[in-house]
Amino acid sequence: MNKNRPEVWLRGKIPDVPDLLQPAAHALLQSAEEVEKYMIGFPEELLWKKPAGRASVGFHLQHLTGVTDRMLTYAKAKKLSESQFRYLKDEGKPNDDISVEFLVQKFQEKVNEAIDFLKNTPENILTEYRPVGRKELPSTIIGLLFHAAEHSQRHVGQLLVTVSVLKDSSDSLQS
């Protein structure tokens, strides 16, 4: 990732994404770039560590993918599948068979899927009602897509802090 490159929102429009969905596309693509950047050289043995009892890096990476997936499902006016419920239940559970590279790749793939969804979402349907969750709480297509984007940015910020704390603690122990 080029350090001198402007943030995604300062690089112009994302081709084929409707104007009203450009901010969501920018935020999701920014999240994907930052995840890749922050995870460079992150030690596998720290993936499931929970500094100060807070969420692990593994949780944040799984949750980034999971939330984006769930918001896309709701935006399509579908209910979550059993596999999505299992994924949600397993977010943050330590699993030594899962690598940093795998989790980063899965998030990149989900962001690409989300961008494709944005490209195929006409602006005239953005305010259509969409029920969320078992309680079918009210939202709209644009509400769900915005939430996917802003929630990804929130967790990327938390990821950065968690990665920094864990790397610093690990480096201090080795010094």
From TrEMBL:
SUPFAM superfamilies: DinB/YfiT-like putative metalloenzymes. It comes from the Bacteria. Residues 42-159 form the DinB-like domain. This is DinB superfamily protein. It comes from Salegentibacter agarivorans. The lineage of its organism: Bacteria, Pseudomonadati, Bacteroidota, Flavobacteriia, Flavobacteriales.
